[in-house]
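Reading is simple: the token line describes the chain's fold. The lines below illustrate.

. . .
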Amino acid sequence: MKFETYIQKSKENCANIYGLKPEEIPFLKVSLTTTQLEARKRQFEPIRIILQQFMQKLLVYTSETPTLIVATDGEGYVLDIHGDQQINEIVEVLGITKGVRYAEKDVGTNSISLALTYEEPIQLIGNDHYHHYFKELACFSAPFSYGEEKGTLSLMTTKEHATHFYLGLLSSAVDAIEREIKVQLQNERFHLMNQVLMNATPLGIVMTNQFGEIQEMNESAERITGWLETESIGKDIEMIPELESFIRQVLNDQSKLENIEVIFSQGEKACLLDVTPLFDQLNQFIGVFAQFRDMQSYYDLQKRVIQSEKLSAIGKLGAGFAHEIRNPLTSIIGLTQLMNELPDEKQRGNRKIIMSELERMRHLVDQFVMLGKVQVSQKKPENLHNIIQDTVCLMKSYARTHQVTLHFEPAISNPILSIDGSQIKQVLINFIKNAIEAQPDGGNVRISLFPNTSAMTVKIIDAGHGMSPQMLDQLGSPFMSTKEDGLGMGLAISLDLIKAHQGTYTIHSTEGEGTMVEFTLPL
């Protein structure tokens, strides 16, 4: 019923508006110039290739039937024609060639104009046409869309061979064409995005198939490896020896590799490599994705930073050392000048002061030298409980002079550790001495020992003035001390000795509450 309405309205237009006579033979009058036709073809180029493939297939399906297949744009201009010899006479009479336009005002009621007007498949068989010349013909048209562009795919045959099957065949063909176009457009967008991302990233990217043949390579990979993509596509990965062994490993075991350092001979570039297996939607292994980051500039910067930190540390040490040496030197110089003006019996006291200051300088130099040395530990089986107990006994008289009481809480078990006893005793003396001196008004220092299955932990707790977070951050730096006459080297040396024993340490402190030093030594 719908077709009949469309056809009746078209016939009325042909008679009343266009003044066409049904007994005349119609002829396609309007035509594009060669330049205009080529421009239209380029505009439809991606879809024309698909249309031509389907048109040729349709001819195969209708090989026993006189058939003409036409593709037009959205204005009815013919872009492509495919047909057999049996229908050539009609083609010549009507003037059907590339570039002509199917317009209702020229050729009367036709399936192409109706399909474009109503945007649905149309069939005209025999007398459905306005002109009598078409009474022995059957025409079928199905519209299609291509982005913002529109067009039709049409089939003409004789009336005796006409069947509704042709309209269904055209409709199915157009649906398939539109799906194919959408897939192609998506693929083109994905390919474009892929190329932009691949070439915008500083990461080198190489992709291979499951046989190790290079399928893709980006610009960064070209720069790092020294190989061009055009030289590499389809070649075996062996052409990039720095990657070959790792990609072969993933090809064999299909497991991911990460953060592998490789050096490319091209420019001696150091890179970190990740290699990932690729799988399709059916979880079938299809290849390998390798990406590598050029780390050379990072490593160069890291070296410069380390060198800068070394120079800065040397500068700070030198400045601190000079400051500490200057004080006793000033005293010695002043006393020496004074001694020239004093009688011999009064010089004895000044000599004692000079000797004391020289001894202080010697001690400072000894500590400075020890700080710069790599701590070598002479380890042997030792009982840490006994070492702590001996150290507490040694420090009791010093604690008593500061009105401080030492409390040692031994462990239930006393496992043997492989340590350098004298070095650990030096650590304990330093920590206990600091805890005593942190309480100028007297107090208590608690030393505890906690064993577990893999280590022994020592805690030393005082109730002194404590330290601020800023001071805690600087602890362990030479010449940084909370004591007025401190050098800050004792703590730095102690921490180095703990590290030399593969131990760990933490220092917790709160201003006004005290400090807890905790260090752990492995069994």
Observations:
- Residues 296-339 form the longest helix (44 residues).
- The domain at 202-294 is CATH 3.30.450.20 (Beta-Lactamase).
